[in-house]
Every structure is written in C-alpha cells, then in structure tokens.
Amino acid sequence: MENDCLFCKIIKGEIPSSKVYEDDDVLAFRDINPAAPIHILLIPKKHIASLAEVKKEDGELIAKMHQVVNKIADQEGFKKSGYRLIVNCGKDSGQEVMHLHFHILAGVKMGDKIV
Question: What is the pLDDT of residue 113?
C-alpha cells in the first residue's frame, strides 16, 4: 500500500466509504461523484498504480476482479439489464487516482457517449 494513495487509505479504513463488497483481495464502494444512478468503484487491495502496471503475477487478481463485477451486478440487481465497465489508464485517460480501479456504471440506458 502507498501512504499517500486515497484508495489505499480507504482500504485501511482511514477514509470512510460506502462499501458494496469486500474480501481479502478487493474492495468495492459507491463513487462519491456518480456518473450514473449506480456507480461503483472496484479496487484491488494490492496497490497497482494503473492498468499499465499490471504484471503477469497479477493475472489471477485481475480475473477475480472481473468475477467480482458479476457478483456485484447480481447482488445490486443490474446483471440482467446490463452495465458499463470502465478502466481509465493514466492521466490523459482521466484517471484521477493512481490506483487501479474499475468503474461499474448501471441504472440507466447508456448511449454511445463515453462517460
């Protein structure tokens, strides 16, 4: 974990969050500035700065994150209607927190516009 990382502080419980899912490897919580009626952030507890920093040994963790997305979709009731999964990589993509995270967006029909 990184001392100055916002998401690492959330993982450690230093900053409160509205948790949706948690296990030994990942944490999911509601975004405080939602871009859709349902906007959940899913983060690995291991600090990985961005998708560009994922290493071969992180493969199982990344696969698990995708499985957890489906668990959350089922748990929150939007698995059947659908959702959008976004991963920003680097500052030019709009990544604001340099800790790998998935945006799970649902609760509204989304057009072709990228959120």
Answer: 56
